[in-house]
Specification:
The chain is globular and about 65 Å long. It has one domain. It has helices at about 1-20, 20-40, 45-50, 55-75, 80-105, 110-135, 180-195, 200-210, 210-215, 220-245, 260-270, 280-305, 305-340; strands at about 155-160, 250. It contains 13 helices and two strands.
Length: about 350
């Protein structure tokens, strides 16, 4: 628990120097938990199955954004527009997850770097489709989405039609997104139950030892593909949770940091490359985003420059991932040395 403890100390110190009111901080942390928790939860199944940190959840985020672009194009809003976005994003995410799972099965032992590169590759295709094809080839009925040239989508698209579509289902205009929190908890309980099923137990077995699992009759490749599909679908839903709360789509940038921040969050909670639970996801999301809230004001008060806080939190995000990968490599090396001995 050394990493969560260090982050807790940083958060307490940062809160002291930020001067932010406690009620404001608590409210902001709750909103960010509801907004980002599902994206972090989407990492758990691949970790348990031995795929490591799935940076490929970026493709799930893209699936969610594609669905939002479609509903916005046809002026479908409100709760029904959000539900339709969920329905549209799910088969797209399943398809993306299947492709990623097939590729990761060809790159066993190098899944993390492979999933990261796949994210970059998919981002290139995504930008080509919505920058070049949208307008002249892909019909766009909603002119407000298009650039002035008529080719390509704008960098920022207003999602006022689905803003708070989920957050306000139970209690409209509430400062706390109750419906989003309850649905996230329900998904969390569902994941916990799923891991106790036969398939869930097979995923744990594959994560512990692929060779023994295969000898025992488990279809290792199929199990790994299913794990990636579940992760990608949850990431698509998580991105939709995020976007309906924000109310704005950064067409070419909203998905880019999804993998980085979700991975950093779960590692901050004490998870590792091969072990993670919902408790670590919750704790990590809480600590990581609390640091996000307080670091700009702490930097402003300490250094008279809010940007210092921004640099610090980006440094921390990359640093935590780097240390986790270093520890994983060291532990793997150590285990192999023992086997040889």
């Amino acid at each position: 628990m050394i990493v969560p403890i260090i982050f807790l100390v940083l958060c307490v110190a940062g809160y002291f120097f930020s001067g932010l009111p406690f009620n404001f901080l608590l409210n902001e942390v709750i909103i960010r938990l509801a907004r980002n928790m599902l994206l972090v939860l989407s990492l758990i199944i691949p970790i348990i199955t031995g795929l490591g940190l799935n940076f490929g959840i970026v493709l799930g985020a893209m699936a969610g954004q594609i669905a939002v672009i479609i509903t916005t194009n046809y002026f479908i809003g409100g709760t029904w527009g959000f539900l339709l976005s969920i329905l549209i994003s799910t088969p797209i995410a399943i398809f993306f997850g299947y492709l990623v799972g097939r590729i990761l099965n060809k790159a066993k032992g190098k899944e993390m770097i492979t999933s990261m590169i796949l994210g970059f590759f998919a981002n290139g295709l995504y930008q080509f489709i919505f920058l070049v094809l949208a307008g002249p080839i892909i019909p766009i009925k909603n002119d407000s989405m298009l650039l002035s040239t008529g080719v390509g989508l704008k960098n920022t698209i207003d999602l006022a039609h689905i803003r708070y579509a989920l957050d306000d289902v139970i209690l409209p205009n509430s400062p706390v997104p109750i419906a989003t929190i309850l649905l996230t908890v329900l998904i969390c309980v569902g994941l916990n139950y799923f891991l106790k099923t036969k398939l869930g137990q097979e995923m744990k077995a594959v994560g512990q030892n692929m060779y023994i699992s295969e000898v025992s009759g488990i279809n290792v490749d199929k199990t790994r593909i299913i794990a990636v599909i579940i992760s990608t679908v949850l990431a698509a839903w998580g991105q939709l949770f995020f976007l309906q709360n924000i109310g704005t789509l950064n067409t070419y940038g909203s998905h880019e940091q999804v993998g980085l921040f979700a991975v950093a969050s779960i590692l901050v909670g004490g998870a590792s490359v091969n072990k993670a639970t919902w408790k670590e996801a919750l704790l990590g999301t809480f600590l990581f985003h609390m640091l996000f809230i307080i670091s700009p004001m702490a930097g402003q008060n300490l250094m008279n420059n809010a940007q210092i806080g921004e640099y610090f939190r980006v440094f921390v995000a990359y640093g935590v991932i780097g240390v986790a990968l270093l520890l994983h490599a060291w532990e793997t090396d150590k285990a192999q040395s023992k086997l040889k001995a």
